[in-house]
Amino acid sequence: MRLVGSAITIAVAILGFAAIAQQTGSDGNQLPAATPPSPAPPANGSQPQVDESALRYFASQGDTRRVNAEIARLRALYPNWSPPSDLSQLSGNPGAAAPDPLIERLWNLYREDRIAEVRAAIAERQTSDSNWKPPEELIAALETVEARRRLTNASDTGQWRTVLQVATEAPSLLTCVNVDVLWRVAEAFARTDQVNRTRDVYTYLLQNCANPGERLATLQKALTLLPETQVAALLQFERKTGEAPDDFSSIRDELARRRVERASLDSKMTASAEDLAVVERLIQNSSDAGPVLILGWYNYHHGNPARALELFKTALGRNGGTKAAEGYAMTLRALERISDAEAFAYEWRERAPENMKIYLDVATALLSQDPPPRLEPQVLARIVPVVTAQRFPDAAQSLGWYSYNTQQIRTARDWFRTALTWKADDEPSAYGLALTTQRLNDRAGFNAVVAQWRSRSQRIADLADGIGTPGRQPAATPVVAAPIPMAQPGETTLPPVQPRPESRQVTAEQVETEQTFARTEVNVRRRQTQARSALGRNCAMTRNPAGLTGDSALTRGWCLMEINRPMEAVAAFDQALSTGSSRTREEAAYGKSLAYLRKNLTSEAAIAAAEAPQTRERRAELGASILTQRALAAYRDGRYVETLLALSERARIVPEQNDLLLIRGWSYLKLGRYDDAEKVFRAVQQTGYSEEAAAGLNAIAEVTGQMRY
Predict the structure, then answer these.
(1) 3-state SS of the chain: helix, strand, coil percent to 5?
(2) Number of domains within the chain
(3) Could you list the residue range(s) of the whole structural domain that residue 589 is in?
C-alpha cells in the first residue's frame, strides 16, 4: 500500500469528519480538500518535477529519520514520484544550482526543531523582499510539525475532540512515520466513546507499520482501551515470518490472565486449563505477586483452600501486601484454623479497611464457636479494644454470647446493650439482653426490652410469656474462660493544630474538625490506593457498573478516583447507592460527592452528599470543600461579595488557611474595604507568606497613596 493511500484512507475512513471534503484522485484514493491534488504525471511518463531540496538537505546531514519522513511526504504529494535508489546521490548534485544560504539556514533551524525561529526568519525575508517565497516543501514541513505539536498538546491535556480536529486538518500526520500520533488519535476516539474507530486505527497500524516494537506497543495500548474481544481479534495481524517477526505472546498471556482473574472473583465462572497453565507459567517466570494472587483467589473461590493458602503465603513473600494478607486470613478461616486466622489478621488489621473487616469477621467467628473455645487472656485483650474502637455490632453480640456461655452474665448483658447501641435493630442482641436481664433478675431491664421488642420478636415475646426454650443456653460443660472486659471509650490522639494568626478566635470544635479532616484525607487516599491494588489493571478498563454488587461497585468507584476518572467513578458510586447496604450507601454518597468536587461541580456534590446519611465529621468536611470551591469560583468571576460570604460560612466550620485568607484580603481590597484587607494581609504575613502578603499591602498602598508595610 502506498503511503498516499494509507494516510488519506485513514483520514477519511477512520476520522470521518465532515470537515474533510472527500474527492477522488486519479489513483482511486480519497483526498481531503485541504490537500492539493497530486500533479498530473507528464505525458511522456517521466518523473514529475519535484523539489527535493529538503530531502537533499536531510541526506547531507545524515538525518535518516527526517529523510524517511520527507520521502513519505513527497510520495503523498506526488504519487508517481520515486526517490533515488541510491540516497547518497542526494548529498550532492553537480548539476544543481548553488543553494541559497538563507534556505540552508532555514532547513538547519528546522532540523534543530526551532520552528518559531524559522517562521520569524521567513517573515523577515518577506518584509525585505516581497517577491521572495520560501520553498513549498519547507512550509509544508513546518505546518506538519506545528500540527503535530498542537495534537500532542491537546492529547496531553485531555482535549480529545481537539486531537481529532487537528488530525482531520492534517491527514499527512497519520502514517507509520508518526506512530505516536496514531496512538493519540486512537485514544481520542476511545475517550469520546468511539471505540470501534479506536479499533480501526490499531488495525491500520498492524496492517501497515513494520516496527515490531511499535506493533507490540499498539496491542499493549489496545489492552487499556478496547474490549478484550477486540484485542483478541487484533492478534490475527501477528507477523510470524520476515526479517522482524512479531511476538505477541505477552498479549495472549495478559488476556488469559484477565480471564482467570475474572473467574477468581466469581465461583460460578471456571477458567480453562490452558488459561490456568498460563498463569502458573507467569508465576514461575516472574517474582511479581499479581499472578500468584489471582491463582490464590481462584483456588479459594473454587473449593481448593489448601492450594490457596500456599499461594497466598507465596504472595506475602513477594510483597503482595494487604490483598495477600486478606486472602491468607480468609483461607485460614476456610480451613477452620480460626485461632491462627485471628492471630495473623490482628497483625494486619491497620493496613487497610479490608484487613480490618477480615479481622473483625474472624474474631466474630472465633467467639461464635460452639462449644465456646478456651481463649487465652491475651486473645481477648486483642479483640475487645478493636471491637470497641470499630463499633462493630456483630462482634459485640458474639462477645455477649461468649460471655453468656462462659457464665459471665453481667458482662454479657453489657455487651448486648453495646451491640444494640451500635445497631438498634439487631434482634439477636435484643434477645441476648432479654435473657441476661432475666437471669440477673433485672425486672426493669427485662420489661424494657420486652416492651420494645414484643411485637418484633416472637422468641422475646415467648420468653416474657414463660413459654419456649431460650435459643442459646450456657454450654453443657461450663468453659473456664478469662474474664472479658468492657472496653472504655478511648480518644484518638492527633498532632496538635498550630495556632492561627487571624483575629477570629478558633474554637475547639473547629480544631477537632480540622483534625478529623486530616485523618479523613489519609483514609480517602488509603481507600483509593487499596481499591486500585484490588482491581489492578481492571480498574483502567472501561466497564458499565450495572450488575455489580454494592461492595464491588464501591471498590470500583474508589479505584477510578485513584486514577483520576471522577465522572466514571460517579456511575460506580451510583450503582453502590442503589444496591449496597446502609454502610456501603454512606460510603458511596461520600465518594460521589468527592468525585463531583474534583470536577468543581459543587451543586451536584451537595446533592450527592444528601443521598445517604453522613457522619457529622463528613458533613462538615464536604460542606467546607463545597464552600471552598464556591468561594474560588466566585472570586474568579469577580463576585467578591459572594466570595466573602462563602469564606465566612466556611470559617464557621474550620479555620481558614493562608491561601483562602489571601483571597479574603484581595476580595476586601476589590470592594474598597482597605482596612479589612490590611488586617488580613498582615495576619498572613506573620505565617511566612511574606511575599504574597506584601503584594497585597503594596496594592493597598498604590490605591490609597499610603505606605502600609
Answers:
(1) 65, 0, 30
(2) 4
(3) 508-656
Q: Has residue 512 been placed in a domain?
A: yes
Output the CA torsion 428→433→436→439 (10° steps): -100
Residue 539 and residue 573 in one domain: yes
CA–CA separation, 677 and 679 (whole Å): 5
Q: How confident is the model at residue 161, as a pLDDT?
A: 94
Cell of 703: 490605591
The single residue listed with the C-alpha cell 506545528 is 146
Tell whether 569 and 450 lie within a shared domain.
no
Distance CA 412, CA 432 (A): 8
Whether residues 518 and 590 share a domain: the answer is yes
Highest mean pLDDT among 41-50, 134-143, 391-400: 391-400
- CA pair distance 136, 640, nearest whole angstrom: 54
Residue with cell 526479517: 243
Q: CA 83 → CA 3, 71, 73, 80, 142, distances in Å? A: 13, 7, 11, 10, 21
- Cα gap 100→105, rounded to integer Å: 9
Q: Is pLDDT above 80 for 331?
A: yes
Are 190 and 198 in contact by the 8 Å Cβ rule? The answer is: yes
* Residue 639 within any structural domain of the chain: yes
Longest dimension (CA), the chain: 120
Task: Kindly report the average pLDDT of the chain as a whole number.
Answer: 79
Calculate the CA 158 to chain-centre distance.
15
Instruction: Provide the pairing of β-strand 23-24 with 30-31.
Output: antiparallel
Looking at the structure, tell me whether residues 609 and 637 fall in a common domain: yes
Contacts of 291 (CB under 8 A, 6+ apart): 257, 279, 282, 283
| pLDDT tens-digit map of 256-271 | 999 999 999 888 999 9
The set of residues, in sequence order, having a beta carbon less than 8 Å from that of 192 and lying 6+ positions away, is 160, 161, 164
Residue with cell 435459643: 471
Of the spans 7-16, 258-267, 564-573, which averages the highest pLDDT?
258-267
Which of 590, 380, 520 is CA-nearest to residue 388?
380
Q: Are residues 663 and 594 in the same domain?
A: no
Of 429, 454, 473, the last residue of a domain is 473
Whether 612 is in a domain gets the answer yes
Q: Are residues 530 and 643 in the same domain?
A: yes
- Which of 237, 255, 286 is the last residue before a domain boundary? 237
- Cell digits for 129? 523582499
In whole angstroms, what is the distance from residue 391 CA to residue 426 CA? Answer: 14
Helices (H) and strands (E) in the chain, counts: 34, 2
Please tell me whether residues 625 and 691 are part of one structural domain. Answer: no
Q: Is residue 117 part of a domain?
A: no
Q: What is the pLDDT of residue 82?
A: 80
Confidence of residue 89 (pLDDT cuts 50, 70, 90): low
Q: Is the pLDDT of residue 596 over 50?
A: yes
Residues facing 24 on adjacent strands: 30
